[in-house]
From TrEMBL:
<feature type="region of interest" description="Disordered">
    <location>
        <begin position="102"/>
        <end position="127"/>
    </location>
</feature>
<dbReference type="InterPro" id="IPR014347">
    <property type="entry name" value="Tautomerase/MIF_sf"/>
</dbReference>
<protein>
    <recommendedName>
        <fullName>Tautomerase cis-CaaD-like domain-containing protein</fullName>
    </recommendedName>
</protein>
<feature type="domain" description="Tautomerase cis-CaaD-like">
    <location>
        <begin position="1"/>
        <end position="103"/>
    </location>
</feature>
<feature type="compositionally biased region" description="Basic and acidic residues">
    <location>
        <begin position="102"/>
        <end position="118"/>
    </location>
</feature>
<dbReference type="Pfam" id="PF14832">
    <property type="entry name" value="Tautomerase_3"/>
</dbReference>
<dbReference type="InterPro" id="IPR028116">
    <property type="entry name" value="Cis-CaaD-like"/>
</dbReference>
Amino acid sequence: MPFYIIHHSTPLSKPQCAAIASHITTTHSERFTAPRHFVNVKFEYQDPAIEPPTYVGGKPRRTNYIFAHVRDGGSRTAADFNGVAAEISQFWDTEIAPHLARSTEEERVTGKGAHVPEEEREVSCVA
């Protein structure tokens, strides 16, 4: 069964989590004609005040990412999974990101900011 883990250091409200979970479920089930009840979505909040940060390039950074455990093979191609990744990313950009606080340059450098600049993003699957 597909299992999506949303790791986030940006606080998300319950309605935001519900919207993300619903979008991922719909996107996955429609793309791969899977029953909706097969799709699992889990949220893991990393509170930067409590937990050690994620390190990117050897520097502490607040990160938001989605890790998907999905079955490959058959008619499922890397292009299909990249399409799902792009749809989920677009949903985040249009429905979630506008409601998040923007990071200052100092927050970006120290890894305490909530906004990930476009040039630091990666939207693809690893097959």
